[in-house]
Specification:
Radius of gyration: 23 Å
Shape: elongated
CATH architecture of the largest domain: Orthogonal Bundle
Distance between the termini: 64 Å
Number of strands: 9
Number of helices: 14
Strand content: 5-15%
Order of helices and strands: EEEHEHHHHHHHHHHHHHEEEEE
Mean pLDDT: 89
Strand order of the largest sheet: 8-7-6-5-9
Structural class: alpha+beta
CATH topology of the largest domain: Hypothetical protein af1432
Length: 408
């Protein structure tokens, strides 16, 4: 009997009985063949998203598209999304300014170490799980002490290598998100490692495709989607890698309405970590400069996330993410009602529309002689005794602002 298989799970020894397109549209001479060499796998991946195999004429697959895999989820988080009762209530143990040196050290070290880890895997070496944990732990400890400092620095940095910085940013966002929802440290660590490693399969995607400035062709997009299967394979072969982490890599491109890949899972078929990863991955991608797309403002990115609730993303998780990040996320540029421009320095958990702001430009968009810190939860008027509020979020780099000039 024919079984439908995503090309990511094809192996030597399988018998391909049918394709997801007419045979005449591919280079294959025979309608049905045994996969007996790596070249066949490469060609199939270039032309197809899924194929049909005959397990009676070759080996079976680990997963079939028509059978949604039953994946492990986090029972506490599933309950939390219904009753909103946190297992752990975190409080900041240091101020943003006090935490900044440790956060900066963790960020700089993480960027360097992740690049080294991924390059080693790209060269065919085994993934070093201890090195991965070494990257995660300083970030984890910093965000547990204070959830603002690291996120502020992450937004301020210049991102020169999207793949590596995206992985580190995903990791930090995951910790902040999990912290907000009350996950114990052990589970925060699992979530962090999963988000850091979920795009590991990109090491097998040609750089020319990953860094392409224009729109991907259909064939190129099929190759990009293969990174899920590649990543899952690398993680499964890594000693000490948990099932939860592997499943994050497997499901971070699945969507709540079933429109994602590689298995078209929907709703609770996707583990809650995977549903969280999808939101985080999408948000960070939109707020990052990529070869084919300029960065969107965090405010606009959050609006998009909100608009996609109920389709791409679970509504309850979207609500939690918005509460965690804030209407105007830490590190984002904003314009005030008096025309001054500032950077959001710290959230106010009880008044999300009134965070702490570092003002850097005056009403004429000229640099202030001295940066001024304004806590909107305490200050409601400007120097002219007019109401002081945030007027709008601004795109990164507007008014020639260089984020690296504003480290505290």
């Amino acid at each position: 009997m024919e079984r439908k298989v995503n090309v990511a799970y094809l192996k030597l020894g399988m018998y391909v009985s049918n394709l997801d397109r007419p045979w005449i549209d591919t280079p294959f001479l025979l309608e049905g063949f045994l996969i007996d060499n790596e070249e066949d796998l490469t060609v199939i991946s270039e032309y197809c998203v899924y194929v049909f195999i005959d397990p009676d004429r070759g080996i079976s697959a680990e997963e079939y598209v028509e059978e949604a895999p039953r994946l492990k989820t986090n029972a506490y988080l599933e309950r939390f999304l219904q009753d909103n009762k946190k297992k752990v209530s975190y409080e900041n143990k240091s101020s943003t300014k006090e935490e900044m040196p440790a956060a900066k050290s963790a960020l700089e070290d993480a960027s360097n170490q992740v690049a080294h880890i991924m390059e080693n895997v790209k060269e065919g070496k085994n993934l070093d799980i201890e090195a991965v944990k070494g990257v995660v732990e300083p970030i984890l400890d910093s965000i547990i002490r204070n959830s603002e400092a690291y996120m502020w620095l992450s937004m301020m940095q210049k991102k020169s290598a999207y793949t590596y910085s995206h992985s580190v940013d995903n990791c930090a966002l995951a910790i902040a998100f999990g912290r907000y929802m009350g996950l114990p440290k052990k589970d925060l660590r699992t979530l962090a490692i999963g988000l850091l490693m979920m795009d590991m399969g990109n090491v097998n995607v040609p750089a020319g495709i990953l860094n392409k400035a224009g729109r991907l062709t259909e064939a190129e997009y099929r190759i990009v989607k293969k990174h899920v299967g590649h990543g899952v394979g690398i993680l499964k072969e890594t000693k000490g890698m948990s099932e939860d982490i592997v499943n994050i890599a497997l499901t971070h491109h699945e969507r709540f309405d079933g429109s994602g890949y590689p298995n078209g899972l929907q709703g609770a078929q996707i583990p809650v970590y995977g549903r969280m990863a999808a939101i985080i991955d999408c948000y960070d991608a939109m707020t990052s400069h990529r070869p084919f797309s300029a960065a969107k403002s965090p405010y606009v990115a959050l609006q998009n996330i909100y608009n996609w609730r109920g389709s791409a993303f679970q509504p309850e998780l979207v609500e939690q993410f918005l509460q965690c990040i804030g209407v105007y996320p830490t590190g984002s540029l904003v314009e005030m009602t008096n025309g001054q421009v500032g950077i959001v320095l710290e959230q106010n958990l009880t008044q999300r529309m009134r965070p702490k702001i570092m003002l850097i430009l005056d009403e004429n968009k000229e640099s202030l002689m001295e940066y001024k810190i304004v806590d909107l939860s305490e200050q409601f008027e400007d120097e002219s005794n007019l109401p002081l509020n945030i007027n709008r979020g601004l795109d990164p780099g507007v008014y020639g602002i260089d984020p690296t000039e504003y480290y505290l």
